Amino acid sequence: MVLSAEPMVKVRIVTARRDVTQAIDALYEFGAIQVTRAREGEPGVPLAEFEGISTSLIRLRSFEKTLGLGAQARQPKELLPLHSLLGRAKKVEERFDGIVAAAQQEMSSAATERTSLLERRRGLEPFAHLKTPPKTLSSLPPSLAARYCELLVPKGQLLKAVGGDGEVAFPSGTSGKGTFALMLLDARKAPQVDERISKMCRPIPIPQSQLPSFLEEIAEVGRQVRAAEVREKGARKKIAEFTRQSASEIAELRAHLEGHAKKAELPNRFSQSDYLEVIEGWVPERNFSRLSAEIASKAHQRAVMERIASAEEPPVKLNNPPGIRRFEFMVQFFSLPHSGDIDPTLVIAVTFPLFFGMILGDVGYGILAVLMALALRSKVKNGFAKDLSGMLLLSGISTVMFGLIFGEFFGGEEMLGLQLHPLIHRSGEGVPLLIGIVLIFAIAHITLGLLIGAVTNAMHGHRKHAYAKAAWLAVFAGLIATVGSIVLPAMFSFAPQSAFLILLAGGAIWLYLLEGIAAIVEIPGLIANTLSYLRVMALGLSGVILAQIINTIPVQKSFGALMYSIAHGADPLAILASLFGLVLFAVFLLLGHALALVLGLFESGVQALRLHYVEFFSKFYRGGGLPFTPLREDD
Q1: Are 434 and 528 part of one and the same domain?
Q2: What's the burial of 105, exposed, middle or buried (CB within 10 Å: 0-12/13-18/19+)?
Q3: What's 169-219 look like in SS3?
């Protein structure tokens, strides 16, 4: 029922141990039961097949992680036979080990080889233009020592430092930005030369090569790098092909095996004796008869199900029609209501789009919000994104409606050549009226919260708290009427101001008797709560001003200047400059409105949510409910 969570009942099922598999099948097929741990008797143990299922599941999940598969298949209601699933899973494992594992090893080997080759090529590049054959440098007589380095000083300084202790050559056409030098030194004097030139050049190790030149060695290494890249690419292609062919099967197998695993480990929560199994859990009250019939049918009338009394807090399953259900995530994000508390989802489904539309309040932005919601809705079929699209759709429609009331289309008062006539001009003389409307909504919203708080406490038999909420209502009414009689005496002329003061004082005294001095101190907070709703008007006004500033970008003037230049045969450069200006201003206009839309959606959503969480929920909501986690989600 709307405004309350699904009534829950705790059940106990007693069945013969030989029929426990049939009972589990019935529970899984039924789905909408939260099995809890039975406290009497010996704890149960998983079914014998659990170990094999678990092993296959671990491998399938590792395959999904390795292959980067993010799709989450929903658990099916009808599970395929276990022996067939395990056989198919075994074949997938064999294909994975034969294709993916081998390809991964090949890819790793090729990547390692490519890295090593690239490092060698970097070491060879300084020698690209050295004409001396590599074999000559690697087979020098003992009396000679070869040195190769990159110069850090002019050539003359190096020549002077080497002097008569060796010969120096500077390869022409050296690669890169550096200048390189090849030195053949007297081996006996090489250490002294090394010391003299240590700060003049950066030494480079001379690599070994069997080819006639370093340039050919570089070319050969490049060929080997390309070969390694081809091997790596081929291995990656094999993995991609396996993923394409097997992704859906892996997801299907995992989903079915997860269902079998859930069934196989379910006896962990049972209690057992030599001959009996005892199952306990929570089920929606309206489904009690259906579960009882399924258990009796599957267990061939050898099982008994009964309601049991429990002091435990029942789990909470919200129960709203599809349109309203889109707003349940806002309640769940804050905290689920306790079982038996009022579910505020219906109220949020009405007031959230209302506040959202009042803040954004623009036909153009509202149409874009609706289109975004429809696009998101077409891409997703379930989950949070679908709920978000439904919320955005209603909020966008509300934005369009308030946009017509405010006469705004992307900040202007003209829509595709049609002049809009605002009923409330919120950026001009309509501001006082809008403030009054927002305050009326605020008073109604806060009053509703206090009323719900009184009703909730009365439902639970908390008479003192229910009376306290009634006292808060009296204080709030007296406070609003007293302030109103001062600010707008004509509207509150139906009663003398003294009557309002008596209502305020009487409510305050009643509140003091029920909740003490702390409650009296909190009374001014009611005014702050009410004034907080004015952010609806303030944020809406700031959004209008931003849109109007964006509209000052001179796109129309630029277009007119371009048309004038073309019509009067202006210089081609002048026409090109006008065209460039038009395009630039148009881009700025589009980006400006895109930014304004993003800011508007964000601010409207956050502030509308804040008014519910802070100003509304604080009047009645305690939260803390435990979520209902059924054995299997409904389709």
Answers
A1: yes
A2: exposed
A3: ECCCCCCCCCCEEEEEEECCCHHHHHHHHCCCEEECCCCCCCCCCHHHHHH
- Which tokens belong to 12? 């106990």
559 in a structural domain? yes
Q: Rounded to whole angstroms, how far apart are CA atoms 256 and 251?
A: 9
Q: Which domain holds residue 24?
A: 8-87+239-307
Final residue in a domain of this structure, among 500, 533, 566: 533
In whole angstroms, give the CA distance from residue 252 to residue 85. 10
CATH number at residue 163: 3.30.70.2750
For residues 529 and 459, state if they share a domain: yes
- 626 in a structural domain: no
401 has a pLDDT exceeding 70: yes
What six digits make up the tokens of 497?
């101001």
Residue 447 near residue 399, CB atoms below 8 Å: no
Q: Are residues 563 and 506 in the same domain?
A: no
| Residues 390, 370 contacting (CB under 8 angstroms) | no
Q: Are 362 and 399 in contact (CB under 8 A)?
A: yes
Q: Name the pTM for this structure.
A: 0.74
Residue 226 is assigned to a structural domain of this protein: no
What is the C-alpha to C-alpha distance for residues 458 and 617, in angstroms, rounded to an integer? Answer: 17
Q: What is the DSSP letter of 461?
A: T
| Dist. CA 8–CA 339, nearest whole Å | 8
- Note whether residue 631 is domain-resident: no
Identity at 356, one-letter amino acid code: F
Tokens, residue 288: 């009690």
Q: How many domains does the chain have?
A: 4
- The per-residue pLDDT for range 356-371, each reduced to its tens digit, is 999 999 999 999 999 9
Q: What percent of the chain has pLDDT over 70?
A: 97
26 and 294 in contact (C-beta within 8 Å)?
yes
Overall average pLDDT of the 185-208 stretch: 92
Residues 318, 343 contacting (CB under 8 angstroms): yes
Say which DSSP state 132 is in. S
Is the separation of the CB atoms in 351 and 331 below 8 Å? Answer: no
Structure tokens at 178: 């550096």
Give residue-wise pLDDT tens across range 581-617. Answer: 888 888 888 999 999 999 999 999 999 999 999 999 9
By the 8 A CB rule, do 291 and 109 touch? no
Q: Would you give the end-to-end CA distance of the chain in angstroms?
A: 20
- State the number of CA atoms in the 13 A half-sphere of 533 facing the CB: 25
Could you tell me whether strands 144-151 and 180-186 are parallel, antiparallel, or unpaired per DSSP bridges? antiparallel
